[in-house]
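> run fold Transcriptional regulator PadR-like family protein
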Amino acid sequence: METPLREPTFLILTALVGEPMHGYGLIAEVARLSDNRISLRPGTLYGALDRLVDADLVAVDHEEFVDGRLRRYYRLTEPGGALLAAEAERMRRNVEAATTRLRATTTSPRLSGGLA
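> ok
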């Protein structure tokens, strides 16, 4: 899987940290993690999950029938956790670099508006 991860993919992996989740639970958790900025539709979610399963980043944990419908639960795999950790570290370094530069330039006359 390519990095940097797209934000929806990053949030799907993040949602799966700790416990297996089914599709509707993932949709709700991604919305919560993103402060409702990301609203996954079922087709988008299941397409992403298929790609993540194919890449061995996510696995089907178990299935159950609820109200006559199959509910499939997904879990984060070890490679998925490692990729998520690496991506979180990459993003942390980027935020740190931006924050350091912003602090240094807030007192500098170079930050006078306009775009680079």
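Strands lie at 21-22, 58-66, 69-76.
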